[in-house]
Design goal:
Elements: H1 2-32, H2 61-72, E1 75-80, E2 83-88, H3 91-98, H4 110-116, H5 128-144, H6 150-169, H7 179-195, H8 204-219, H9 225-228, H10 239-265, H11 274-289, H12 298-329, H13 331-344, H14 360-373, E3 382-383, E4 388-390, E5 393-395, E6 400-403, H15 405-409, H16 453-470, E7 486-488, E8 492-494
Parallel strand pairs: 2-6
Antiparallel strand pairs: 1-2, 3-6, 4-5, 7-8
Bound molecules: protoporphyrin IX containing FE (HEM).
Protoporphyrin IX containing FE binds at residues 98, 123-124, 135, 190, 307-308, 311-312, 315-316, 319, 375-376, 379-380, 382, 442-444, 448-452, 455-456.
């Protein structure tokens, strides 16, 4: 009994001591000022070990960081657990910073390190020479497979046609959640480039890969504590453990098997897809430089393929799910697009990207969908690879760089009434589309600008044009209009909602192709 009393009082004293320590540390931080050379930052939200993390609102981090920029300016710093983060708000500063080679790293976090073996695998989260090599190869290979050309368009159109059928056969009385169909359809496009296979909407395995991807994207959320507090990863059931299990499963159950199958059936003279191209180049490098010196490997390929699957699926599908939601909320926009499509394309064939110049309102709406949704609101976090200077401040090596792309897309200095959905903002006085508005940087900029930008733009245009050519979409009868709240992972996704796309709503059933 005596021992128990002693123990309890010991624990109590330790807790009291801990609290006093934290309070003293907090006060000391408030009084001592900020480290010399760094940009400003909130002094009042810094605790030992966790730094500003307890104050970060994971669900709305992009708006919260925008609000803090009103106090601290276009560049400020935060202590995120064990990493110093530099938040960038100013458009010109983001562009300048992201063009610098020493700002093209990725953060040193437990999740990314596991996935990429300390940022040495793949293209999305790797850095240094590995990233440069993989990026060069991926870009040239995607170009060969028609990215930005009409050859890829036929793949997109095939998937659109299937999606239209799926929508048509859905329950159009009580409505349905479009996201599951949209993500399957969009993912099937990047998968056909990468794996040379056509994955169908009713393939249970493919559905499972997509649902695992959804989970991974949430774990990779930019403000996730586990990214900045490595010790959390050791706790049972931590997101790090779940992330690792998911990745190991996806790798072994799907990706490695696909690569093996390709190795068995490859014809070096007729590459079928991205995996074939990589294997052929890898063999050539091994022949010329020897296996140990070549930087290409099956391990690299596995992560590269996963990067393309992830980056090419979540982003565009969320953009489209937002797009359909906006179309329901702004029926006058939908009607204008339909009138333009009827005029220019008619109902006898699907719209194509060749029609784009003659469909300025549809094109402007697509740009407005991209701007309003900004589906990667805080970009893919970058990191400094050496000490550097930004806007006159000293930024140390390994600092995390957070570009608030969402804030730029919603900045009243560049966009009149930024919170309004108004496609007209992309049309000039002659009704022509202003495609290159400088502040539209949702694909980021500089050395690591999105590799799939052309593909994504083509996909969003074709899906929106084809869906609205065939259907008028609306919320199911009696249900309320979905609002514009979203869910933040690494991407910004709309909350789940239902739509009804009964084509009889506007007698659009007469479409035949
Ligand atoms: C609306 C759709 C999309 C948006 C908004 C988007 C946005 C972004 C952003 C913000 C980055 C980070 C760039 C940086 O680090 O500064 C990125 C990188 C990347 N994106 Fe996209 N993306 C989209 C679609 C796609 C598609 C369809 C692909 C498929 C090929 C893709 C592949 C990639 C890859 C591989 C990277 C990494 C580039 C690198 O680190 O060098 N993205 N994207």
């Amino acid at each position: 009994m005596g021992l128990l009393v002693l123990d309890t009082s010991y624990v109590g004293s330790a807790a009291l001591f801990g609290c006093v320590f934290v309070v003293l540390w907090y006060l000391w931080n408030l009084l001592r000022g900020l480290p010399a050379g760094l940009p400003p930052g909130p002094r009042w939200c810094r605790l030992p070990v966790v730094g500003s993390l307890p104050w970060i609102d994971n669900k709305q981090m992009h708006t919260q960081l925008r609000d803090w920029a009103k106090v601290y300016g276009g560049i400020y710093h935060l202590q995120m657990g064990n990493l110093l983060a530099i938040v960038l708000h100013d458009l010109n500063l983001i562009k300048k910073t992201f063009a610098m080679d020493e700002c093209s790293g990725r953060p040193d976090t437990a999740l990314l390190n596991y996935y990429t073996q300390n940022r040495t695998l793949g293209v999305l989260f790797s850095q240094g020479d590995v990233w440069r090599e993989n990026r060069r190869f991926t870009l040239s290979c995607l170009r060969d497979f028609g990215m930005g050309k009409f050859t890829l368009e036929s793949k997109i159109s095939e998937e659109v046609k299937i999606l239209l059928e799926v929508f048509e056969h859905e329950d159009n009385v009580t409505g349905f959640d479009p996201h599951c169909h949209v993500i399957t359809s969009i993912s099937a496009i990047i998968c056909s480039i990468v794996f040379g296979k056509h994955y169908t909407h009713d393939d249970p395995d493919f559905r499972q890969y997509l649902s695992v991807l959804d989970e991974q994207v949430e774990y990779l959320s930019n403000g996730a504590a586990v990214s900045f507090l490595p010790f959390l990863g050791a706790l049972p059931g931590s997101p790090l453990t779940k992330f690792k299990n998911n990745w190991d499963w996806l790798r072994t159950v799907w990706l490695e098997k696909e690569i093996e199958e390709h190795k068995q059936t490859i014809d070096a003279n007729h590459p079928r897809d991205f995996i074939d191209c990589y294997l052929i180049k890898m063999q050539a490098m091994e022949n010329s430089e020897g296996k140990s010196r070549s930087c290409m490997s099956e391990k690299q390929l596995t992560t590269l393929v996963a990067d393309l699957f992830g980056a090419g699926t979540e982003t565009t599908s969320n953009t489209l799910t937002w797009g359909l939601l906006y179309m329901m909320r702004y029926p006058h926009v939908q009607q204008k697009i339909q009138a333009e499509l009827d005029d220019v394309v008619g109902r006898g064939r699907l719209p194509t990207t060749k029609d784009k110049p003659d469909l300025p309102y549809t094109h402007a709406t697509v740009l407005e969908i991209l701007r309003c949704s900004t589906v990667v609101p805080l970009g893919v976090l970058r990191a400094t690879t050496q000490d550097t200077t930004l806007a006159g401040y000293d930024i140390p090596k390994h600092a995390v760089l957070i570009p608030n792309l969402w804030a730029v897309s919603h900045d009243p200095r560049y966009w009149d009434k930024p919170d309004e959905f108004r496609p007209e903002r992309f049309l000039d006085a002659d009704g022509k589309v202003m495609t290159n508005r400088e502040a539209l940087i949702l694909f980021s900029s500089g050395t690591r600008i999105c590799l799939g930008e052309l593909l994504a733009r083509a996909e969003v245009f074709l899906y929106i044009a084809c869906v609205l050519q065939r259907f008028t979409i609306a919320p199911p009868e009696g249900s309320t209009m979905p609002d514009e709240r979203g869910k933040l992972g690494i991407t910004w996704a709309p909350l789940s909602y239902k739509l009804n796309c009964d084509c009889s709503l506007k007698q659009r059933c007469s479409i035949w192709y």
